[in-house]
Structure formats: C-alpha cells, structure tokens
Design goal:
single chain, mainly beta
C-alpha cells in the first residue's frame, strides 16, 4: 500500500500562486506515475498533471499548461504542483494520486489517493 498526504491549499487572489505538496509513504517503490486531479463543486474529477516516477515524463491538461508545474523528489518521496497565474476557475479540491501501472489522465486507473486540499481563487 501507498499512503498519500496532500497539503498546501488555501485562498489566493486571481493572478496569485500556490504550491501544493504530496508526501508519499509505504510501498513507494511501486509507484509508476504520480499526478494531480481536481474536483470543483458539481463537477467530475478532472486530470491536471502527471509525472512518471522514474523517468520524470510529464503531461498537463490544456487548461493549466504554461501556468502549473509538476515536479517530484524521489529521495523525499514527494510530488509538488506549483500553480501560478491562478484563475477563479481553478477553484477546486485538489487531489494527489498514484498509479502502479498507468500513466494517463483517467482517474479510475489510479490506485492511491490523498485526502484532498482546497484551493480557492477569488476574483
């Protein structure tokens, strides 16, 4: 099993920045991909970004390209999401996730999830 703990959310004005962190513990050697998803009220959970644990290959949702940066620190078993130029439509609960064998954007194929951290962007 892998345990994920998200942190770093908060309230920020439009145009501001936030940095989310995800600490992984347990069988971290089994992680193939780590990613971030978000879910706004009344909406489905959507893919934000992902990074393969070993090679560092990265993908972003079109809605966040050029504004968000995902990174990982294998030694510390952490995955970070630096968010800049935030917009009100970025408001959501953000979830860290990890998969043992998948590297795409489908949330159903991720095996482990953090508890979520709220990001609120005011206009």
């Amino acid at each position: 099993q892998v345990q994920l703990v998200d942190s770093g959310g908060g309230l920020v004005q439009a145009g501001g920045s936030l940095r989310l962190s995800c600490a992984a513990s347990g069988r971290t050697f089994s992680i193939y991909t780590a990613g971030w998803f978000r879910q706004a009220p009344g909406q489905e959970r959507e893919f934000v970004a992902r990074i393969t644990w070993a090679s560092g290959y990265i993908n972003y949702a079109d809605s966040v390209k050029g504004r968000f940066t995902i990174s990982r620190d294998n030694a510390k078993n952490t995955v970070n999401l630096q968010m800049s130029s935030l917009k009100p439509e970025d408001t959501a609960v953000y979830y860290c996730a990890a998969s043992r064998d998948y590297s795409g954007p489908e949330s159903s194929k991720y095996h482990y999830w953090g508890q979520g951290t709220q990001v609120t962007v005011s206009s």
